[in-house]
Fold Peptidase C39-like domain-containing protein.
Amino acid sequence: MFWGGLFIMKIFSKQILVFVSLGFIVFLIILLNQQPLPSKEVGESREKKPENNPEKIQTKSPAQSPVLEVAKKSAEKILPDNFLIKNVPFISQAPKKIWDDLHREACEEATLIIAKNYLDNNRASEINAQVGDKEIKKIVAWQEENWGGHFDLSLKKVKEMAEKIYGIKSEVADIENSDDIKKIVSA
C-alpha cells in the first residue's frame, strides 16, 4: 500500500508540474504578444479616425468618461518613490566648526535658516559660514530673551519661532508613515 501511494503521488506531482509549466508558458505568450498602448496624455482620445472618412467620429468627451475619471483619481494617489527638491542652501549647525554648547544645540536654528533662505529664493548650495553663524546667534539670543534660555525645541516651538522671527507661516503635520511625507513633499 505504501509503495502504491508513492507511485500515485509521483504521477500526480508530474501532472502538477506540467500544468504549472504550461500556465507559465501561456502567461509569457500573452505578455509578449500584448500591443503597447499609444502614448497619449490622460484625457486625450485613443480612438483612431478612418483616414479616408472626412466625417467626425462622435465620441464622449474626456470629462464624460467614467474610466478616465477613475484613472485621474488613481493617478492622483500615486506617490513618487523619491522627490528631489533642488537647490536648497545648506548650513551646518556649527558653521565655523566650533562645537561649543551653543552650536551642539543649534540644529533647529540651522534648519530654520535653511528654510528661510529657500523661501527667500536663495539657491546657493551653501550659506556663508560667517553669515550663518551670526544668524544662529541672533536666533539663540531671541530664544533667551523670549523663553529664558536656549533649549532643544519641539516642532511647535520651531513653528512659533519661524513665525515670530521671520514671519514664516507653517504647519505641523502628524506623520504616520513615509507616504505621509511623500504626499507633503510632492504636493
User: Anything to note?
Assistant: The radius of gyration is 31 Å. Residues 34-51, 53-65 have pLDDT under 50 and may be disordered.
